Amino acid sequence: MKALLVQAPNQLEIVERPIPTIASTTDVLVKVKAGGICGSDVHIYHGTSSVATYPRVIGHEIAGIVESIGTDVSSLELGDHVVLDPVMNCGQCYQCKIGRGNVCSKLQVRSVHIDGGYQEWIVVPAISLYKIPKHFSWEEAVMIEPFTVAKQVCSRAEITKEDRVFIMGAGPLGLSVLKMAKFYGATCYVSDIMDNKLEFAKLYGADALINATNTNVKETILELTQGDGATVVIDAACTNKSLEQALECVCAAGRVIALGFGNQPTGISQLSITAREIDIRGSRLHNNKFPEVIADFIAGNLEVKDMITHRFNFMDIHQALALIEDPKKEKGKVVLLF
Ligand SMILES: [Zn+2]
Ligand SMILES: [Zn+2]
Question: Is 292 within a domain?
């Protein structure tokens, strides 16, 4: 079978590997059918991920069909359509015991620390797979994983319909959070430096759009919120200055969600947090959100088909990456078909 392997930064090869076989009685063999391309896959490809190790098969937004199951697997049957959970945790550490397994002390993420799903077949434990209805298209199914991340953000931010949410950055994560927050009934303001990205935000129901290159962002947010500031600020811009700006835009007793992986310090004062009791919370991956997101998809709570703009055969990975990296090309989610 073929697998898409990043041998080392900037060296992505299509390699031949034997089809994996079931090694444990709780394993499942899945024929991969589709994989979404995530910004983090692109970072791992270029060596700009601070956490990835090499060589690595990338891809963590994966859907496929169950082809073989171990003797102790009761949750799945042959022919089931499934999506893959990239998060693996130990179940034993403090974080796992308090129900925060997505920040397990022995956390392993498929496509980052261990091989991901851009391969024609993959063997994983049954607990890493979630069954989906067969009427979901494969490309729709790959959107489930990114929405687990968006749901985690909304859950960390405790978003309700009362909230006035400022989403900084209209990239894929910012836009998924927007869709989820709109489903919860929140008022959402979205900023970006690119008008074409803001157009997507408008399409997905943003209540106000802010182009940060030609607008005073803080003043605009204060105007929109009658001088209070947003109750929640999501920093999906993840630049060196964006967390500082998030604190300027949040109201007293509000929540700021940090999503960046930059390791440079930012100039945030103690006063800006303490005086107004701001909660700054990180949000990473997702914490057991697959069942909730699959339920959202089944209920039709989230329209995702309009987010998918390009499809490639997985063998054309280099063309797909070239499209993603061309700033002149408009695109939403790019999906690889296997
Ligand atoms: Zn991702
Ligand atoms: Zn753990």
Answer: no
Ligand nearest to the CA of 108: 2
From the CA of 94, the nearest ligand is 2
* Residues 104, 138 share a domain: yes
Q: Which ligand is nearest to the CA of 36?
A: 1
The C-alpha atoms of residue 268 and residue 252 are separated, in whole angstroms, by 16
Spacing, Cα 236 to ligand 1 middle (Å): 13
Q: How far, in Å, from the CA of 122 to the mean position of ligand 2? A: 24
Neighbours of ion ligand 1 (CB under 5 A): 38, 40
- pLDDT for the residue numbered 114: 96
Residue 264 pLDDT > 90, yes or no? no
Burial 24-43 (b: 16+ CB within 10 A, else e): eebbbbbebbbbbbbebbeb
Shared domain for 133 and 161, answered yes or no, is no
Integer Cα distance of 122 and 22 in angstroms = 9
Asked if the interface predicted TM-score (ipTM) of this complex is over 0.90, the answer is yes
pLDDT recorded at residue 145? 98
For position 215, which CATH number holds? 3.40.50.720
* Domain identity same for 138 and 25: yes
Domain that holds residue 222: 148-282
Please give the distance, rounded to the nearest whole angstrom, from the Cα atom of residue 67 to the centre of ligand 1: 25
Distance CA 153, CA 331 (A): 23
Same domain, 205 and 270: yes
